[in-house]
Amino acid sequence: MTSINKWMRGLGLAALLGAAAIGHAQPYPNKPVKMIIPYAAGQGTDIMGRYISDELSRALKQAVVVDNRPGAGGNIGTQIAAKSRADGYTLMIGTNATHAANAFLYSQPGYDAQADFEPIAMVGILPLVYVTLASNPVNTIPDLINLARAKPDVLNTALSTTTCRMAHELFKMRSGVSMTPVDFKGSAQSITAVLGGHVEFMVDTIASLQAQVAGGQLKALGVTSAKSSRLLPGVKTVAEQGLPGYELVGWTVIFAPKGLPAEATQTLTEALSKILERTDVQDKLLQMGIDPQIKTGSELKAFVASEKDKWGRLISAAGLKPV
After folding, report:
1. Structural domain boundaries of the chain?
2. How far is the C-alpha of 130 from the C-alpha of 136, rounded, in Å?
């Protein structure tokens, strides 16, 4: 090999090494990010997750690719996320089911919601609301409590999900009244039963009941969030109607596998906070039945930990056994 060829090869090697060094030094993110959604495409969590993923993609200037992994109440997708590399390129949409209730509803969920995950940012909450027929003389939560005390175990409450069941159990614990839960296989069946006069009361997400309340068919008695919800303006909370401390909501949080690099944590937290502060994003989430709530850092970690404790106590009180 001639000296000039050696020189040219040396220049080529130096260029390659320089390019590699520059690539290595590129800030996060420098490749597509995967967003695992542990529910089927088309469900509410999926629709919201895709919307937030699109917004995050624009903010990061990198593709955020949705990966639906449904099954076992959200456990399958959550297991996959837990076992992924903690490098910022795998995130997931977590809920009160995957990161609070499932630890007590499943004997082997396949992950530890706190040990395996780092909460990045809350997207919002899904408050529930107690309703009854518009013609029912019960108008408030105190009216409901007084009637239940006068007729123990006589009043029926329609429930369609574990979240609804836990709201019911917490109501019983805080009020001291006893009402008979009637389980249905979805909100539509519950609504039909109440509208038909077969069940007196119902508790479900505001998103599920908004149309019937707005149309005057059903009457809202009280919402289950700590503060009044923008989803049902003017309706008082259960807590401020005589049951202080009552709060039970669904929620969605973006999680990453534990051990996320500080640079990725900061980039994601700042990007998501700016997204969720935007009025147009908040309006869109409200249209989806989600009340936007911005929590990050230590506040969010404390929230997730307290929610897991709360759901554990309520599931135990309800006598639900893990499968």
Report:
1. 33-125+250-317, 127-241
2. 13
For residues 3 and 277, what is the distance between their CA atoms, to the nearest angstrom?
62
> Which letter, b or e, does each residue of 306-321 get, where b requires 16 or more Cβ atoms within 10 Å of its Cβ?
ebbebbeebbeebebe
Is 112 a residue whose pLDDT tops 90?
yes
pLDDT, one tens digit per residue, over 118-132 is: 999 999 999 999 999
Residue 294, helix vs strand vs coil:
coil
Find, among 200, 242, 198, 229, the residue nearest to 129 by Cα: 229
Give pTM, 2 decimals: 0.86
Reported CATH class of domain 127-241: alpha beta
Which pLDDT belongs to residue 320? 86
Question: Looking at domain 33-125+250-317, which CATH architecture does it have?
Answer: 3-Layer(aba) Sandwich (3.40)
CA dist list (Å): 114 to 23, 78, 302, 303: 33, 12, 11, 12
Element (H, E) at 110: none
Query: What separation, in Å, do the N-terminal and C-terminal C-alpha atoms of the chain show?
Result: 71
